[in-house]
Input
Amino acid sequence: MQAIKGIGDFIFASVSTDSILILRVFKSRLAGLGEDERESAYVQSDKVVFSAEPIGELGKNGFISGAGHFPLVGDNIFAADDVVVERIFSSIGDHLISLGTVNNYDNVHPDLNLGKILTSHIAILGNTGSGKSTTLRALLQKIGEVQSELNPLVSFFVFDVHGDYEGLSFAQGIDVTQTHLPLNKLELDDWAAALMPSERTQKPLLSRSLSIARVLPDHSQIVYALLTKDALENTNQNSLSGLKRLVTKWIKKVFPEDSAVNQDLDQWVLNFGNEEGKQKLVKRVSDFLNDYPYKDVNEIINSVSSDVNFTLNELEEAFEVVFGEEEVKGNNRVRGNTETFMARFRNFKSRYGNSDGILNENHGEELTLKVGDSPRKTKIYILNLVGLDDDALRLVSTYLARQVFEFNKRKFRNKTEKDSMPFDYLYLDEAHRYVRNSADDSSTIFETIAREGRKFSVYLGVVSQIPNELSKVVMSQTGAFLIHRIQNALDLDFIKRNVPAATSGMVDRLPSLPSGTALLSGSAFDIPFEINVLAGDLGEVSKSRNPIQRSK
Output
């Protein structure tokens, strides 16, 4: 006997002698009610009207997505049984993995096309408690079970923000909090991700400060002398007192133990409108600089290697130098315009620059996801990021993503190394915290990978409970969506506009999906459909503790 259980069921109609049209039910209502009328307990009817949408044709060559033929009015429509549904999915998977059963068909375990999934960026979305973390754990476990089918250079890196993936028997852990980031390898975009400077004003100051920080370890006195020289030659200050304050600050760093400097400064005065004593200071600084070949700070920067190491203290001092350069030019508002930016840096330095911080070069080994050309011992790695705040999370994730992308990009460009280019998968938990829309026109490394990563075998997986806060660029390049229960109106609207193949009827069902059920949609799936993820014990990790104790 054939029966329809409800929304999500498959039905079919004969459209030729050797093929049937497959449709999916997306709406139902009692017969006798209008489209906009609500059902009531007082309405009695033994008939139900179902609305369905065509998804493809099933024939002797298997299932083909899309419909070219339609039944006539009055033709019979039949409910699809397990055999029909099994035939649909057996012809669109690659027989490597299955995550569960088709919703409403408990005996049908659909094969997924792992080849398409692994050549796509993926997104696993859903409210807290809907099962998205469990789905990722199940997906990784299934991939681990067929790793002999994968290229030896395939690696998966899960960015674990809350500890939801620790202890998985099929994965190896990397405790990021017990390593350090080498400051000399961090680039402007890495720092910008953490400190979030404004694009037009603060980011150029950050760039300049990073350049100066690299010269301070060996050339600090020369930098201070050049800054003093610029201040003494400056004509932008409104008063001698303002100019003298700048000169005093820097010249004492050039001659820290020379008491005569204080006397020279005291003799630099205005006497009845005439400036006196300045030339002694000018000569003192000029004599010092005569021993060095540099005319300005830029010449020092150009003479120093870009990979010279420096400390956070030297970076903080470099900010002071840059502020000094701006103040010499008459920009007396530079400090006020960077208060929030500098407060974020000082907090960052205080929290992560100490003896057990990730920005202390003496703390643990250097953090890296690259181990040369040889395959890693296992394919799945869990990066423990628990305890990092949003600033540090943005820095670490940006640095590691850029490191992987640039490594593969160099391999790709070298014809002799192209075949040894790894396949790297970066699966980002709580992605809305660091894969966000830019406040300006700047582009992040995640958006670069979203657009170009496939060419260099780098793929993203974003896991999030707040889809509307994710980067629209990343989402637009995503090919595989696994969407659990979502109830927020903004998120539902975002999914309607950004998830291909997901019809309004499918999205309207998302708020009522039970935990563990997901809508699969996107170019990696021949048809969108709902799946009940069978994760077994993998789902226990995500269960919330019950505060209520019941007596026996």
In short: The longest strand covers residues 19-30.
